[in-house]
Amino acid sequence: MRVASGLSPTELLELTDAGAASDSAERGLLLLAAARPDLSADALEGFGLGARDAWVMDLRCATFGDELSGRVACPACATSLAVAISRDEIGLEPGEQGAAVPVWVELDGTVVEARTPDGSALLAAAAQPDVEAARRSLIASCVVQASAASGAIAPLDLPAAVLEAVGEAILAADPGAEVGVPLDCAVCAHRWTPVLDPVLFFWAELHAAGTQLLDDVHQLAAGYGWSEPEVLRLSASRRRRYVDRLLDV
Ligand SMILES: [Zn+2]
User: Fold this and answer.
1) How many angstroms does the Cα of residue 81 sit away from the middle of ligand 1?
2) Host domain of residue 239
3) 48 & 161 share domain
4) In a domain, 197, yes or no
5) How far is the CA of 77 from the centre of ligand 1 (A)?
6) How many angstroms does the Cα of residue 73 sit away from the middle of ligand 1?
7) Alpha carbon of 192 to ligand 1 centroid (Å)
8) Does one domain contain both 55 and 84?
9) Same domain membership, residue 182 and residue 68
10) Residue 3 lies in a domain
11) What distance in angstroms lies between residue 193's CA and the mean position of ligand 1's atoms?
């Protein structure tokens, strides 16, 4: 199953308006809702990160095409590199398995039952006032129960090594939750794997496209007296050609 179609210019502007003051977790849910309008808000909040990102990436590619391009700085020599990667290299395929996945970890006699974070866990963490509070919120959401020989342990009382093992197990259970894109620096040959956040990436593109759309509406409204809905109904290429005429390009 794939998204039916990419965002129209009107949908794009409505979405960027709706998420203008939102954090990344809320924007992730907005994008997921746009990709899956058939599902309820409750169902969408239950999606695991990897599943959410796969649908967000699907909507992104339906809207802007199957190639992702941008600039990234080499961590070794700081050269700004132009990067173009194809959707296939990212390997996020939307499936029906949206729900959080259970995870069990046993370390030093401590047994932890946890689950991969879903949208509601991320929303709760994002609403916290600082990074430490967000971390504690996420742990509390993801650890279902924990116990040692001495009895039950509250999630936030778990030793750091156990929490680290739980974090690794969660990533392994939901590999799509962290998308690495291997890159080679063309200047110094440094090889590294930056993490691609589909929500951040897509949102930045939407913001830029929304700004361009508003510029076009402004030009064509001022030049021809057309309304915003009339301008947004034009195809991208025709809009561009009228703007070019006005600007005498
Ligand atoms: Zn380099």
Assistant:
1) 9
2) 218-247
3) no
4) yes
5) 4
6) 8
7) 10
8) yes
9) yes
10) no
11) 13
4 lies in a domain? no
State in Å: Cα 116 to ligand 1 middle.
35
Q: Do 25 and 63 fall within a single domain? A: yes
Residue 61: what residue type?
C
Nearest by Cα to 30 from 46, 10, 44, 48: 44
Name the average pLDDT for the chain.
90
pLDDT tens-digit series, residues 123-134 = 888 888 888 888
pLDDT at residue 170, rounded to an integer: 85
In a domain, 213, yes or no: no
Q: Which residue has the tokens 């929304």?
A: 210
The CA angle 61-18-214, to the nearest 5 degrees, is 75
165 and 231 housed in the same domain:
no
- pLDDT (tens digit, 9 = 90+) per residue, 29-61? 999 999 999 999 999 998 988 889 999 999 999
Q: From start to end of the chain, where are the E strands?
A: 67-73, 80-86, 102-107, 110-115, 143-148, 151-152, 179-180, 183-184, 191-192, 195-196
- Global confidence as pTM: 0.82
For 165-220, the pLDDT digits (tens) are 998 888 888 767 778 888 999 999 999 988 889 999 999 999 999 999 999 999 99
Residue recorded with tokens 């391009």: 69
75 & 191 share domain = yes
What Cα–Cα distance (Å) separates residue 62 from each residue in 2, 7, 42, 151, 234? 9, 8, 25, 51, 18
> Do 118 and 52 fall into the same domain?
no
Counted domains in the chain: 3
Share of the chain above pLDDT 70, in %: 98
